[in-house]
Every structure is written in C-alpha cells, then in structure tokens.
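Thread amino acids onto this structure.
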C-alpha cells in the first residue's frame, strides 16, 4: 500500500533540529521525498505499523505534527505527477 507522509517539526524548540533529521531519515529509508517534508512510502501493512510507531515516537506531539494519507494498493491511478524531478520506481531497489 502507498502512504503519503507529511510532517512539520518545530526547529525553534530544543531538540527540534535533531527530531527533524530523525523523522526525515526514517521516511527516506523507506520511500522517496517528493517535497521538503513529504514522502511517498510503499509498505506492507505490518511494515507500516512499525514505521508509524517509529515516527510517532520521534516527534514531540505538543510541538510537531505528522499527517498520513493512505492511498491504498492501487495508488498509481490516484497519483499524478507533473513537472521536474521524476518519480522513482518504489517497487525496485532504492539505491542512491
């Protein structure tokens, strides 16, 4: 299934820069960045449960926010891309 993850981490608070880096790394390890704080992540349900918990544990809910958009298994028909920065094949290896 495809999940769109967006986040807003308060970098002006103590530890904010570190939280931001950790959230970005957790998302980058599983998917592709499509905007500064937005990632497309294709995962199995069990993997999603684990990643969701990891992300929730990384933020400070009083200062930061996470949004998860569940696009489902047939996401290819629900996502339209126009412009620069072509999408990666998330079913293939993610090697940078």
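Threaded sequence (96 positions):
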């Amino acid at each position: 299934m495809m999940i769109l993850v967006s986040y807003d981490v308060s970098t002006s608070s103590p530890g904010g820069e570190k939280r931001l880096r950790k959230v970005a790394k957790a998302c980058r390890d599983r998917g592709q960045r499509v905007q500064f704080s937005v990632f497309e992540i294709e995962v199995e349900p069990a993997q999603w449960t684990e990643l969701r918990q990891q992300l929730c544990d990384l933020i400070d809910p009083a200062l930061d926010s996470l949004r998860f958009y569940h696009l489902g298994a047939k996401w290819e028909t629900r996502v339209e891309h126009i412009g620069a920065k072509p999408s990666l094949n998330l079913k293939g290896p993610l090697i940078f």
